[in-house]
Design goal:
TAT_signal; 15 strands; protein kinase activity; binds magnesium ion; Kinase-like_dom_sf; binds adenosine-5'-triphosphate; 2 domains; alpha+beta; 3-stranded antiparallel β-sheet; 29% helix; Transferase(Phosphotransferase), domain 1; 24% strand
């Protein structure tokens, strides 16, 4: 395993200024967890391995010494390239979701079922492994509202064990059929473990909807497992709805997880998340994917087609 050192300085004042400026610039309130980021300290992050990611976002497993507690911790670091104005809007939307969830559920145990954010910062260039990542100390730093050249959004999050794609790599995932297969030290192919994981993810989805958030990208790659418990992640395409609102007038997410009727209407509603979760369970537990929906080599997204209306008209 190849290790590279990444230095991160985290002056609390700078972090607070960044959050305040970003909040003023982009409307969403800063995440409470990020606001609580500690005193001025330097953290040396060692990148242990890449966990995932595509063209815009890379996610790494990192190790660092927490200077407050002097303990070595592992975390996930996601570095996202904001190359287009739409990326910036999505990034602001994602931070808003973390903030909405924090205000809705605070320290409630259901938060363990939804992705958490420890802290975030913006770097005014692309980030690649081996870069020195420094939280800029100047107060003017903010998440821009538009971008002319690529900037990177870095997010430090708790580390989860694996996503549900890992389970589908051992088909057929038949309950009790492969008792020797363990995932992340947790035996998952028992009925009890599978039911608990599924219930966790259903509850996570329900809590998300109850907080007024549409996920819009539920799928195998965005359902994680940590110590045998399900965790719903990736709010990159999520939308915060107005009270009572059930739908958004654009359709987003991987095309094979879209509800056909929503595709026809060109908008995404809560039912679309429910459908995507059902399909995810079908692929995970039953090793079943409708033949007409076989996964393309590169996941197609609804917004690859441009506006949802154009997509619906295809
Ligand atoms: N906190 C984490 N712990 C462990 N693995 C993670 C974590 N966050 C993400 N991953 C892994 O990285 C992959 C990609 O992460 P994420 O969903 O955040 O980005 P993305 O899918 O590239 O973004 P987008 O869906 O916006 O294109 C996940 O499918 C998962 O396997
Ligand atoms: Mg994802």
């Amino acid at each position: 395993m190849h290790r590279r050192d990444v230095l991160i300085q985290t002056p609390a004042a700078a972090a607070a200024a960044v959050l305040a400026a970003a909040a003023a610039a982009t409307a969403p309130a800063p995440c409470a967890a990020a606001e609580a980021f500690g005193d001025a300290e330097a953290r040396e992050l060692r990148v242990l391995r890449q966990l995932g990611g595509g063209s815009y976002r890379s996610v790494y497993e990192v190790e660092y010494t927490d200077s407050l507690t002097a303990t070595v911790r592992r975390a996930a670091l996601s570095c996202e390239v904001l190359a287009r104005n739409r990326d910036v809007r999505d990034a602001a939307g994602e931070l808003e979701v973390f903030s909405v969830l924090q205000s809705a559920y605070g320290d409630s145990p259901v938060m363990q079922l939804l992705e958490q954010l420890d802290t975030w910062w913006v770097k005014r260039s692309r980030v690649s492994v081996g870069d020195t990542l420094i939280v800029p100390p100047q107060s003017g730093q903010r998440l821009p509202t538009s971008t002319r050249r690529a900037v990177s959004l870095c997010q430090l999050k708790p580390l989860y064990d694996f996503d549900l794609r890992a389970i589908t790599k051992f088909p057929p995932y038949a309950l009790g059929s492969v008792p020797s297969v363990r995932f992340g030290g947790t035996m998952l192919n028992t009925e009890e473990a599978a039911v608990r994981m599924a219930l966790d993810l259903l509850l996570a989805g329900e809590c998300l909807h109850n907080a007024g958030v549409l996920h819009r990208d539920v799928g195998l790659a965005n359902c994680m497992v940590k110590d045998g418990r399900g965790v719903l992640i990736d709010f990159g395409l999520s939308e915060v709805l107005k009270p009572g609102q059930m739908c958004r007038d654009t359709l987003r997410g991987q095309t094979e997880y879209l509800l056909p009727s929503e595709t026809a209407r060109g908008r995404g509603c809560r039912g679309g998340d429910v459908y995507a979760m059902g399909r995810t369970f079908s692929e995970t537990f039953l090793d079943y994917a409708p033949p007409e929906l076989h996964r393309p080599r590169r996941a197609m997204r609804a917004d690859d087609f441009g506006s949802a209306k154009r997509h619906a008209a295809r």
